[in-house]
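Hypothesis: this fold can be encoded by more than one sequence.
Test: take the structure tokens below, design a sequence, compare later.
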């Protein structure tokens, strides 16, 4: 008896696509200022989770320290990662600055909460060497 195929819950399906796209994102505060406390990190996660939902994405994991946050996001192929990042940073900045005015000193951060840059790394799936070997070993049409 052959083993029954179990669907992978991380592999998503659309009308014309099957996908498994994950990104590791890191955002740092402006000038690497120590802006976060535990309460702010909890609220930041909540805000970012809602932004992901609006994009049809899932915030799989979230964590951070005083001056940066890490996110693991599962997103659909129709979403441009840069657009998702801009919304995550923009929406969270507005809410966090409005809700934590005593902690987020506008003068210290010069009107911005996040640094203009970010890290985005693709992750998940097979290691690159496995994919490279697979592609190289495909038969060419004769």
């Amino acid at each position: 008896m052959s083993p029954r195929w179990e669907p992978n819950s991380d592999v998503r399906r659309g009308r014309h696509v099957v996908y498994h796209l994950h990104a590791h994102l890191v955002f740092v505060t402006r000038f690497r200022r120590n802006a976060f406390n535990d309460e702010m990190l909890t609220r930041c996660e909540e805000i970012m989770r809602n932004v992901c939902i609006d994009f049809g994405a899932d915030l799989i994991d979230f964590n951070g320290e005083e001056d940066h946050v890490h996110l693991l996001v599962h997103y659909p192929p129709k979403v441009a990662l840069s657009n998702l990042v801009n919304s995550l940073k923009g929406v969270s900045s507005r809410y966090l600055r409005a809700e934590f005015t005593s902690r987020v000193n506008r003068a210290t951060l010069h009107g911005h909460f996040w640094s203009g840059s970010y890290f985005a790394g693709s992750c998940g799936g097979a290691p690159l060497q496995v994919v490279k070997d697979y592609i190289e070993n495909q038969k060419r049409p004769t």
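The chain has one domain: 17-136. The two ends are 37 Å apart (CA to CA).
Hypothesis status: open.
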